Amino acid sequence: MKLKFSKMHGLGNDFVVIDGVRQTVTLSPERIRELGDRHFGIGFDQLLLVEAPRDADNDFRYRIFNNDGGEVEQCGNGARCFARFVTEQRLTNKPAIRVETARGVIVPQLEADGSVKVDMGVPRLAPAEVPFVADAEAVSYPLEAAGGTWQISVVSMGNPHAVQVVDDVDAAPVGAVGAAIESHPRFPERVNAGFMQVVARDEIRLRVFERGAGETLACGTGACAAVVAGIRRGLLDETVKVHTRGGDLSISWAGPGQPVYMTGPAVTVFSGEVEF
Ligand SMILES: N[C@@H](CCC[C@H](N)C(=O)O)C(=O)O
């Protein structure tokens, strides 16, 4: 089965995006892993599959697969690329697009300056909703991993995040400690591990070891989770510029019960066809 795809990225977090509205698509975890390989395949952090919605009130459904082949609930940089893709492919001409994900509806909106703003929904903070094993909800928790104890905040943006504050993000042990946190037994569905350096009340630097993909150049839901964690710890104001290794995002959160808004770029690199 030959499928048309677009190669896209949001701040260097890269994707293969497939139109499953006009094409019949059958995916297997093995083939996703093969195509995700940067030497023997196309190479991507995540594969995004666009489908027709299940509920007629929505415009699309979109599914997210990490390059390890596993399907996950949410992807921030992917949401912006999804919006750019359905517009460029003329699947819709709506400026604000209602899209179903595995954890609810999100609404990306194309801005006049070319960026994409996304209502990423309300963050979930109760440990059971992340999910994270803890006796009670707290702003942060000590977690033992890789021979050390790390003070993490846990946040679900639809997908699970563990965020810690570090003095210097360039020196942070993202690979070793991130991998140990990703598969820590207190996270039964594994977790994305974020390392945040607070530069000012409206500016952070962030690196994320992503579940199922390793460290990426940027993680949109990771940026949302870091800002939520920083605001809850009293370190950040409502709107924060997030510097990632791939570029900058703007994240806003007005507090508990409110949605997180993420604004940033989405870029198409090339289109092609591949055997699935
Ligand atoms: N890169 C993404 C997150 C993709 C999913 C994540 N690795 C997970 O397993 O939850 C983003 O931009 O949010």
UniProtKB/TrEMBL annotation:
GO terms for biological process: lysine biosynthetic process via diaminopimelate. Pathway: Amino-acid biosynthesis; L-lysine biosynthesis via DAP pathway; DL-2,6-diaminopimelate from LL-2,6-diaminopimelate: step 1/1. Its EC number is 5.1.1.7. Substrate binds at N13, Q46, N66, G76, N77, N159, N192, E210, R211, G220, T221. HAMAP family: DAP_epimerase. PANTHER family: DIAMINOPIMELATE EPIMERASE, DIAMINOPIMELATE EPIMERASE, CHLOROPLASTIC. This is Diaminopimelate epimerase. The lineage of its organism: Bacteria, Pseudomonadati, Pseudomonadota, Betaproteobacteria, Neisseriales.
